[in-house]
Amino acid sequence: MLNKAQIRYCLDTMADMFPEAHCELNHANPFELVIAVLLSAQCTDALVNKVTKDLFQKYKTPEDYLAVPLEELQQDIRSIGLFRNKAKNIQKLCRMLIEDRGGEVPRTQEELVKLPGVGRKTANVVASVAFGVPAIAVDTHVERVSKRLGFCRWKDSVTEVEETLMRKIPKEEWSVTHHRLIFFGRYHCKAQSPQCEICPLLDLCREGQKRMKRRSG
Length: 217
Prior knowledge:
Helix content is 60%, strand content 0%. By secondary structure, it is mainly α. The two termini are 26 Å apart.
């Protein structure tokens, strides 16, 4: 695993590579962000944005989502993976917001995870992006990059990856680092075809060095 100085170098390099890293889910308010992140599970942000372009025109408030039959909402998000279950969770979430929170999205991770369909990753994204709460949401990109580079161990669970990153990265950098790790994984250190041959972190990446040896051999 990398030491503190090596991790610092990685973070600074990612900052240079992706200085504008940000949440790529289109939204206008915390409520839309919750819906978008819920829809993004096992789905690309690009597809979610395509669906929410019309969805957010049709549904503005939690009440709007409850004013239609479940089947209609399912049709509206049909191109999204797991659309039936996600539609059910959206309506359950909206009902809870109305009944327990006056229609307002909670601001803390602890309260957000109580919402139907909202796991820790979703809660961290919403708390960080919508409310400025320091957080590191571990999605597939963050987990992959963290393990490939040696920020954490391959056998670590998602929760252990999050805890390790929170321990090794200054709290004031959690949120921006989360976005940079995502951009690094989405556009450079890809799941199937990582760009090891041009990676500025190759000298620190044992996984990348192994890949390069296999290619040359």
